[in-house]
Design goal:
single chain, 531 residues, alpha+beta, Chloramphenicol Acetyltransferase, six-stranded mixed beta sheet, 17 helices
Length: 531
Amino acid sequence: MSNVEDIYPLSPAQHGMLFYTLSAPESGVYFEQFPLAYEEGLDPDVFAAAWQQVVDRNPILRTSFLWEGLESPVQVVHRKVHVPLERHDWRSRPAEEQQRDIAVHAEEDRRRGFDLTRPPLLRLALFRFGETSYRVIWSHHHLLLDGWSVGLMMNDVFAAYKTISLGQGAQPPARPPFKAFINWLRQRDTASSEAYWRQVLAGFRRPTPLMAPPVSEVGLDPGYELRLIRISPDLTGRLRAFAQRNRVTVVTLIYGAWALYLARTGGERDVAFGTTMSGRSPSLPGVDSIMGCLINTLPVRVQADPGAELAPWLQALQKSLVELRQHEHTPLVDVLGWADLPRRVPLFDSLVIFESFTADASFVMSHTRFFQRSHYGLTLVSSLDPVVTLRLGYEPGRFSEDLVFRILRDLEALLAAMVEDPAQPLGALVGELAAEPLAEAEPREPGPRIPPRTDREKAIAGIWREVLGLEEVGVEDDFFDLGGHSLLLLRMADKVRAAAGKELPSADLLACRTVASLAQAVEASLVVDVL
């Protein structure tokens, strides 16, 4: 414990990221990788010292995560950590070989992942391509940093590099620690947020489907890919002008276009998707300079009445997004509990993000693709740099590359059609939509409760009763239907692991949603040990 500086709880977003990372440790979910290029010469020793200085000054970058044996996960700040930096001199390699080998390195680095209990959850690899040409692969876990913080960190590194290069000892003022945000979250009143979310989600009974061919038509690649298009300067200009004339933002146009795309492909007028909120409330002093994971993912519900006029509809959407910001710190796990859907049914399977961070121009994104992965089926990331850029993250096992590009082009065409006439009805953009959901995701009719039959089932059922606060649990009852959620599932898995008296893979335990399946998984693991 001599190297422990502080211990405190996780933010709501961190809880969700931890759960999905443990549920699928081999998937690369929430692993982030940024390739950087520097073409004007670089001192590797100064570069390493700059990164180390930034890590030393920011507690979140010296943080690990613990959950086993605890009622709730915690993040642990360490006093001192060493920044791993690999150095490679590839000047003698042909250019094509350099590009191929750095792509191989990036892929191998992603496969390594991170041990969340061992800091730092970031690492670097520096490649010298020429006398003044360098490439950097920076990898970290999303638990540490949101997009805004990535920009803050890069700027700090570049500033530290310049300061150290010039032999100057002065350092910028210390940033407020991430713990300040956690403490601020714990003081917030949740009653008004519960009322808000219950009203917003009332009557929403079916998650919005993502239309895609069956997996068998696409392949079984479990990886994750990103594809992008850049909107032309002409269309970008028309989007900006339309937004200004109709008192909305370009971001609202993109959100509206995604809602209309989901409505058109799903054939329903009541749709939902997720959005990532910045979490940087002006009521927290210095919030824009805090480095950490302040974001939160929450649902956006949009009703696309074919008879509604476009401009007023967009204005109403923008108003609802502004109202959402007043409740942007509500844990998603709580929001899901207030919805009219069973907990086991995902409220949405697509995510829309707008990126607005900037970094020092000394480094630029290289030709190697950067890597970000969420656990949602589709993740649309938009930015203005200076033209509108649309990136779509997807799982190749669910969506083909051709389909993803078609979605992006359809979205571009939809945006172009929207700016033609602010008075046009939504029906002109999406066609006829069903007035009611095509099918409702209602809770299945419960059959007779099956009591535990074996000693293992009895022990696990006892743990479920304790964790869920219930008097009875059947072996085929779904954990989420009984009121469970991801945080309770983590707690339950830890208690099952302790009762079994051995290390059991978190992914195996978290995949089991009934007492019967969990008992079978534990027994199978114990049998493997005996064999």
